[in-house]
Specification:
- The protein is mostly helical.
- About 75% of the residues lie in helices and about 0% in strands.
- The protein has 34 helices and no strands.
- Helix 15 runs parallel beside helix 17 and helix 16 packs parallel to helix 18.
- The model has no long low-confidence stretch (mean pLDDT about 90).
């Protein structure tokens, strides 16, 4: 057994019929190469992998992935090119994921190759793949141009020419692959050749009869725009983008513009965006396709950052009325998600005058997802608008949402109340929001009750220890005594240790212990063992006198309980006293 080489073990394991075993074997390729050493890896392992005949796509995918990780195990950058040969074969495989992973590995290896290796090995591989009989090899070739170009030297012109040929291919899949990589290739091409060689290719692709290719061109425009001056963008890119945004024959092209509008606006700058792209964008907000409208709305929060207040008020804000009442739930949900970020950008005055009406309208939306998305961000609006936020209309809406049939909406309201409390102050909170919050402790859904317990600590932090002792704790205690449901009494007990960190030892002894001692005799065992668990949490907060006079006798009695869970936790607590 000691005489078996790592390569023989690798071969033996790879000979199994089980695909999972083969994949795991391939993933140990680095370990095999490390054990064999650089010379044996070059002379034995790589030739074996080149001749390896495997038909399982999962195994080939793993092999493509692992070959890229052998860069530092073949003896230095002068030998790294040896990894390209098996990857060339993998780049021709029919399965897309295998080819993509092989191309990715080639690009990683190209970063470490010296110029001579790129020109002598990688570029010829690209030429062979680009002229392959099957479209799969030509698709793979399109992804390698960007990696090879910086070190291609005198072969750069040939690379540009062959890339242009791929962009004009008869096979749509090849054109789409080339269009998809055009932006990456353009980043590495010199400016003069970018304009003379690649820009005409790009313009031709934007008028391709395949809408999937025109969609990719919109995404490539995001990469191209920063490479050009303002005048060059105005001349070359803007007409293309405007045409794409207004295209009638394919909503997917308009969708691509809508999805990338914020990136395009940032790349082109405020001036060009306002002059040429703002009107098409406003039209996208009112597009006939819900997917397009939704995508345009999702870009709103970033788009408003590159537009002036005048442009927003005159052209963008008028579209909000129809978005708030849009027939598509998807659009209204996206609008509800975007509004808080828009508000932070435009500031308090604009939010109060233009946006709050839409917040109120979305809070009354018939769809619970829309209501949830706007309610979950109410705290941001309260922080921004201040005390004026909680007017009569807003309070009525919040009250209705606190009783919403969907528990996620009720939970979201509870989570926002501490933030609202911080904005409106003690008096307004106690008179308007506190009843809603306390109702959460009696909610019929467990997650809502748990959220109410967790938010008690946030409320205590907002208003301080004195208010917690004099007002909040008595309300929780009152909730315990008056509620008939054992689940709600349990909620009150669980709330006590949450508030304990805001109270003194004397306050805990005077206000909390009577509740615990009473709950320790509750007829429901679940409450009794929760009491024992609560005592465990409170023991560090109590002095020895209280422990000996009140806690120990209570625990001694609980250790005689008929319920074994109560006994278990009572013993746990007794050990800590």
């Amino acid at each position: 057994m000691d005489d078996i080489s790592p390569l023989d073990l690798f071969r033996e394991e790879l000979a199994t019929d089980d695909i999972a075993t083969k994949v795991n074997c391939i993933h140990r390729l680095r370990t095999v190469a490390t054990a064999m050493g650089p010379e044996s890896t070059r002379s034995q392992l790589l030739p074996y992998l080149k001749k390896l005949t495997v038909e399982d796509d999962e195994v080939l995918f793993a092999l493509s992935e692992e070959l890229g990780k052998l860069r530092d195990l073949v003896g230095g950058s002068h030998f790294t090119h040896l990894l390209l040969e098996p990857l060339e074969t993998l780049a021709c495989i029919e399965e897309t994921m295998v080819r993509d992973k092989a191309v990715e590995a080639v690009c990683l290896i190209a970063e470490q190759l010296p110029e001579s290796a790129v020109q002598d090995t990688l570029v010829p591989i690209i030429f062979r793949l680009a002229s392959g009989e099957w479209f799969t090899s030509r698709v793979s070739a399109a992804g390698m141009f960007g990696a090879a170009y910086p070190k291609a030297g005198p072969l750069k012109s040939q690379l540009r020419a062959i890339f242009a040929q791929l962009c004009a291919e008869d096979t749509p899949m090849v054109r789409r692959a080339a269009a998809n990589k055009l932006g990456d290739f353009a980043l590495r091409v010199e400016k003069e050749y970018l304009i003379s060689d690649l820009l005409p290719v790009f313009k031709n692709l934007t008028q391709d009869d395949q809408d999937s290719i025109r969609v990719v061109c919109v995404e490539s425009a995001v990469r191209l725009a920063p490479l050009f001056s303002i005048e060059e963008n105005k001349t070359h890119l803007l007409p293309v983008l405007v045409r794409a945004a207004e295209e009638k024959s394919s909503w997917r092209v308009r969708l691509a513009v809508a999805k990338n509008f914020d990136k395009l606006a940032e790349a082109l700058g405020q001036a060009l965006t306002a002059i040429s792209l703002l009107n098409p964008y406003v039209n996208l907000l009112a597009d006939t396709e819900p997917d397009v409208r939704s995508a345009a709305v999702n870009c709103l929060s970033q788009s408003v950052k590159v537009l002036s207040m005048e442009q927003l008020q005159q052209q963008v804000f008028p579209a909000f009325q129809s978005l708030a009442k849009d027939g598509s739930q998807m659009v209204r949900t996206a609008f509800a998600q975007s509004l808080p970020e828009i508000a932070l950008t435009v500031g308090r005055d604009i939010t109060s005058r233009f946006l709050m009406n839409y917040v109120l309208e979305l809070m009354r939306d018939e769809n619970h997802e829309v209501r949830f998305n706007i309610v979950s961000k109410l705290g941001r609006f309260a922080d921004l608008v201040g005390a004026d936020f909680l007017n009569a209309t807003m309070l009525t809406n919040i009250q209705h949402l606190a009783e919403d049939p969907q528990w996620r909406v009720r939970l979201s309201v509870l989570e926002q109340i501490p933030g609202l409390a911080k904005s409106v102050g003690t008096e307004v909170f106690q008179s308007k929001l506190e009843p809603l919050f306390m109702a959460g402790l009696s909610d019929n859904v467990y997650s809502v009750r748990v959220s109410a317990i967790e938010e008690l600590k946030a409320l205590a932090d907002v208003f301080g220890p004195q208010w917690t002792t004099s007002h909040l704790l008595p309300r929780v205690v009152e909730h315990f005594y008056k509620d008939q449901s054992y689940l709600h009494r349990m909620t009150s007990v669980l709330a006590l240790p949450v508030l304990a960190s805001s109270l003194s030892s004397d306050d805990i002894a005077q206000s909390m212990l009577p509740v615990l001692l009473r709950a320790a005799k509750d007829p429901v065992p679940n409450i009794r063992f929760v009491v024992a668990k609560t005592i465990i949490k409170l023991i560090p907060c109590l002095d020895a006198t209280v422990l000996n006079s009140q806690i120990r006798p209570c625990l001694n009695e609980m250790q005689q309980d008929s319920d074994r869970d109560v006994v278990y936790y009572a013993r746990q607590a007794a050990q800590l006293c």
